[in-house]
Each structure stands twice: as structure tokens, then as C-alpha cells.
Amino acid sequence: TGFQEAVLSPDGQWLLMRQGGNVGAGGRDILGIRLGRDTVPAPVVSTRYDEDAIALSPDGRWLAYQSDETGTVEVFIRPFPNTDAGKWQVSSGGGTAPLWSRDGRELFYLSSGNDMMSVRVGTGSTLTPGQPTVLFHVPPDLLDVETTYYTPWDVAPDGRFLMARRVDQGPGTPNRTYVVVENFPAELKARLRR
Prior knowledge:
It is a single chain. The protein is built from 2 helices and 15 strands. The protein has about 190 residues and is mainly β. Strands 9, 10, 11, 12 and 13 form a 5-stranded antiparallel beta sheet that branches. It has a 4-stranded antiparallel beta sheet with strand order 1-2-3-4, with no helix packed on it. A 4-stranded antiparallel beta sheet has the order 5-6-7-8, with no helix packed on it. β9 and β10 (about 105-110) form a beta hairpin. It is globular. It starts with a strand and ends with a helix.
């Protein structure tokens, strides 16, 4: 099957991808390719369970993802790129859509009760995740946007959460797709030079 999700490492050296597959059948794995070096993707986290929702820490040293290996989808963290060197379960009772804070000292995820959770993470030579705490409840209209395998929100540099909301405009109204382009002037200049 093809790749359904991709994340570029902060240093631009790695492209991590989630391979598709049947949900719940262990067909979702995280693969990686070192850009300019590898010719085929290699397994990064590949087990008989489903792994998805790739989130690399801002320093590129830690990989957060979700997996159903406990029988419930939970959030885990592993070192990166040597993912076999350790594993920590961050959520308990269900967790999806992990996302790192901009400084990498906090990991956010959505609990099974639709609460936005925060876990303080000490990242010295080893990882030391703290206890999850509730930040706020996420209302249902924000959960209509895909949260099953992806993380449909971001955290601004000042700590505000940026979330998508699906708006029902009634029957017969065409669906619209919006694309947000960051740093548009630089992107435009680069395209004009080609």
C-alpha cells in the first residue's frame, strides 16, 4: 500500500512516512528514508500492531506516535533515529494525535474523553515523561476534523492552539478545501525563479 502521512525531520535529513494498510490489522507502520542517502524506506517503528500519527520533537531526537499495541490506542515516545533504544507509554486509558510544543519540553495529545492533555518531558540524555494533565476539553465541532490517524492542530510559538473547525453549510453546498501556505513571499520568489 502507499504512504498516507509524511513528516520531515527538523534537520531535513529524514522523511518519516506512515504506510497504509487495514486498520487494526497491523498494516500501519512508520518507515523512514534518509534523504540523499537511502533509496528505499526502512522500518522505523514496525510491529504487528498499527503505528501512526508521527510527531518528531523539535530537536529531532524523539519520536511520538500512537499505537494500538495495548488493545487501546495510546501515545508512545521512542528515541530517534534509534527507535529500538527505548519506549515510553505517555497516555493511559486512550490517547491520540500527539504533538510537541515548540520548545520540545511538552507533548500534547487528545485523551479518550476528548480532553487536550499535556505531559512535561525532560529530555536530557534520557527521556523522563511527567504525569499527564488536562489543559482543556475539545468541543465536538473540532473533533469532526480527522483525529483518528492524524493530528489536525498545531501550537503557535506563543503557546496558543490552532485548530480546524468543520463548518456545515447545509445540503447542496460544495465542499471547499483551504490551503495555508506559510512564508508565502519566499515560496512565491522560489517558484518565480524556476
